[in-house]
Specification:
Length: 795
């Protein structure tokens, strides 16, 4: 939302002249300043002149000769526009003047007559978009001979504010000024709502059939208006606030909406059937052409404004074409209403609409504003459009909204903010923000109706923090019953540190994905990842479901990085996935997925560039398991989306937790990835469980005994099974087991293979001898024979 500084100063006397200090104050109040724009007149040498006479150019029918009073004498210029008349004030660019865009004005001879200067349009001065005619200035705001640039409200600053969805009260200049007044401890100007009514009472009628959708609806008639341009000051203010001026009546509705945050809609009363407005829900099959020219089929849940028969507009969102104010409008029916915020939000969403009115109504506008805003807008229309406000203000408010009462415990501020605030300071801070406070602890706080976001003690504490100053709240770790972070969080951080230490980059992706993402993984129909939780209001078809796997995210990251010329990419993600459950909330386990493709890190001078494959994936898992102190088994298996024969499933404490290996080439192609992909996908829950910490064991200074054994086994026996059998038989003195050779072929029989292992034994207190390890060697051979049907080669 754009807020000109000069508009703020109409309501609050801001101390100092440095706009950046006010920007800092706004940010401290939670109204983030996304940008500051300095505005100055983009022209010079332009004076205010009065038109004395207009006559046709003797040599050109379409040109006129205009005699002007410049305040220091008379001057004649040639002009091609005819939208002004004698007696008007106009901007005259004198010789040497520089206009918007850098055009320098000089003397020109036009059809035999010298024109010393030019009369300007607002576009030529950079004050608007209208280039069709001369800018006619208002008598009350300018005098002959004035320097026009000095007469404008410039220089000025416009703040671009980011307003959070809960702060409907800050979606207005007055709301921002209210916060600044509280911050600086200066008075806030009262809201303007005086109106003079004349003539016969209004004949308009309002029928509210749905008081839940519109708890308060007001209407007021303004007669005998003349549609025309707004005064320059209003056009400039609207332009600086980010709105396009249209006409005096429409501009008033926009101006007051920006001023107080209460949306307004004006109807051409002569176009209303029986001069009646009805607030109701849409009927099945009913349609409406909105102000943007789009014919819309209405939904039965849409709250609409209608006549006795036909729809006139979407309540709180956008009006319709059939009753739009135009050049011939002479009677206005002014609607200022309070709507149920969720209805406005859903109606706008259903029709894909966004408007300034909707942005405010969907947040929840103050129900006490309509009478004041209606009076303010009606009087401005009377003043600027020559109208008369008819007696008979209509205010349908059957069930007045009662201000919320919140009890604030004395120690709540300290509990949530960690700072001690005296009772007197709490009362002062809340009172400055418009809250009524009784008692000295607990405090009984009456919340103003302009703050529908404040409903509980924590909301009041947030208000205290805003005004007290976030920068005055010291930063320190919270104190609780435990010491430091919980074990599961420490282990999750250890997972991240280990993965980054292994050369992987962490990614964070959306929690939404499309069904096609999971289908591309090639998982079977019975796979749990096929059972996805649908999103009710998806942003797009590609994000129509809650994600059931992290793999599409990490594989997508590989594709993007490869497309940008990276020769080697390694990424991982830690996050939740979502599955249907019997409860309303989906089951949300945490998972870890990683993927790597391309060049393996290493010396660049190697002749043969090594590429990542399944061995890298297994190595990463082994590194992570070691860091977490997790004992596991790894067995070869077939599992989508891994490549058969290059996949292993991991079990911890006898339970399956995931798989590691190499991505199936078909899946890689589906994701647009070339080359082998090292892949891992795990349930993170079991890995976060606290386990017995590592204990230090003094290294033995004694020499080891090292010997090799080669076992002949069936081809189907996994190497992991062999290592398990050896460890179980070797006893406590086995220090290291390493597989260093795999062989098949003659003289081995078909279907047989040989695996050679190197065993290192060491005792902590005495030197082992070969003779002492003979029984151990025998036990190993017997265990392998009994468990795996293997035999010692050469034995």
């Amino acid at each position: 939302m754009k807020v000109p500084l000069r508009w703020l100063r109409q309501f609050v006397d801001l101390p100092g002249d440095d706009p950046s200090e006010h920007a800092e104050a706004l940010s401290n109040l939670g109204l983030e300043v996304e940008g500051m724009e300095s505005i100055e007149a983009s022209f010079s040498g332009v004076v205010v002149a009065r038109v004395l006479e207009i006559r046709r150019h003797p040599e050109a029918d379409k040109l006129g000769l205009v005699r002007l009073d410049t305040g220091s004498g008379e001057q004649e210029v040639v002009c091609g526009a005819w939208n002004f008349e004698a007696g008007d004030l106009v901007p005259l660019a004198t010789v040497g003047a520089v206009l918007d865009g850098g055009l320098e004005v000089g003397e020109r001879e036009i059809r035999g007559i010298t024109s010393a200067g030019m009369i300007c349009s607002e576009a030529e001065l950079g004050l608007g978009d209208d280039a069709s005619g001369i800018l006619v200035l208002e008598e009350d705001d300018f005098e002959v001979g004035d320097d026009l640039a000095a007469s404008l409200p410039y220089p000025d600053v416009v703040y671009d504010l980011s307003i959070t969805p809960n702060r409907a009260d800050a979606m207005s200049v007055y709301g921002v000024a209210r916060d600044l007044a509280a911050f600086y401890r200066v008075p806030l100007a009262p809201q303007q709502g005086d109106v003079v009514e004349t003539g016969e009472p209004t004949t308009a009628k309002v029928v509210v059939e749905d008081p839940e959708g519109s708890p308060r609806f007001t209407a007021r008639e303004i007669r005998n208006v003349g549609i025309g341009p707004s005064p320059l000051w209003m056009r400039l203010m609207l332009r600086d606030a980010g709105m396009r001026p249209i006409s005096n009546v429409v501009d008033v509705t926009n101006y007051v909406t920006l001023e107080y945050g209460q949306p307004i809609h004006a109807y051409d009363m002569d176009l209303l059937d029986k001069e009646t407005l009805v607030v109701r829900r849409a009927r099945a099959g009913e349609s409406l052409t909105t102000l943007d020219g789009v014919r819309r089929t209405l939904h039965p849940d849409d709250l609409i404004i209608s006549g006795p028969k036909d729809a006139l507009g979407l309540a709180g969102v956008m009006g319709g074409e059939s009753s739009e104010v135009g050049e011939r409008t002479t009677r206005i029916l002014l609607e200022v209403a309070h709507f149920f915020a969720p209805d406005v939000l859903l109606t706008g969403w259903r029709h894909g609409l966004r408007s300034e009115a909707q942005a405010r109504n969907e947040r929840g506008v103050d129900p006490e504003l309509p009478p004041l805003v209606s009076a303010r807008a009606a009087q401005m229309m009377a003043d600027l459009a020559g109208g008369e406000v008819a007696p008979g203000f209509i205010d349908v408010y059957p069930n007045p909204i009662v201000p919320v009462q919140v009890s604030l415990p004395t120690g709540e501020a300290k509990r949530l903010l960690g700072i001690e605030l005296e009772p007197a300071e709490i009362i002062d801070l809340l009172t400055r923000l418009g809250f009524a406070v009784e008692g000295d602890g607990p405090f009984e706080v009456a919340v103003p109706t302009c703050r529908p976001d404040v409903t509980r003690p924590a909301d009041l504490v947030e208000e205290l923090a805003r005004l007290h100053g976030y920068d005055k709240i010291p930063s320190r770790l919270p104190r609780g019953p435990g010491e430091g972070l919980p074990a599961w969080e420490r282990r999750r951080r250890l997972v991240r540190r280990t993965m980054t230490g292994a050369g992987f980059y962490e990614i964070m992706s959306y929690s939404f994905q499309g069904r096609s993402d999971v289908e591309a993984l090639g998982v079977p129909e019975a796979d749990p990842r096929r059972r996805m939780v649908a999103v009710r209001n998806p942003l797009s078809e590609e994000q129509g479901f809650m994600r059931s796997s992290l793999l599409p995210s990490v594989l997508g990251a590989l594709r993007v990085n490869l497309a940008r010329g990276r020769s080697g990419v390694a990424v991982f993600e830690v996050g939740r996935v979502f599955f249907p459950s019997d409860d309303e909330v989906p089951h949300q386990p945490q998972r870890l997925s990683f993927a790597a493709v391309g060049r393996r890190p290493g010396a660049r001078w190697e002749r043969e560039e090594l590429k990542r494959d399944a061995r890298d994936a297994v190595g990463v898992w082994a590194t992570l398991a070691a860091a977490l102190g997790v004992e596991y088994t790894l067995e070869q298996a077939e599992e989508a989306p891994f490549n058969p024969g290059r996949c292993g499933v991991v079990s911890v404490d006898g339970s399956y937790i995931g798989a590691v290996g190499e991505l199936h080439p078909g899946v890689a192609a589906a994701f647009g990835i070339e080359g082998r992909v090292a892949l891992g996908d795990f349930d993170l829950g079991p890995l976060l469980e606290e386990r017995t910490p590592w204990t230090f064991r003094t290294p033995s200074p004694l020499p080891p005994v090292v010997f090799d054994l080669a076992f002949e086994l069936e081809e189907s026996v996994a190497a992991a099974a062999l290592t398990v059998a050896i460890r179980q038989a070797a006893g406590p003195d086995l220090e290291q087991l390493e597989i260093f050779d795999l062989f098949n072929g003659p003289p081995l029989e078909e279907g047989r293979k040989s695996i050679a292992v190197r065993l290192t034994f060491r005792h902590a207190e005495r030197t082992l001898t070969d003779e002492q390890l003979v029984p151990v060697r025998k036990a190993i051979v017997e265990r392998v024979a009994a468990d795996l049907g293997g035999r010692l080669r050469g034995g």
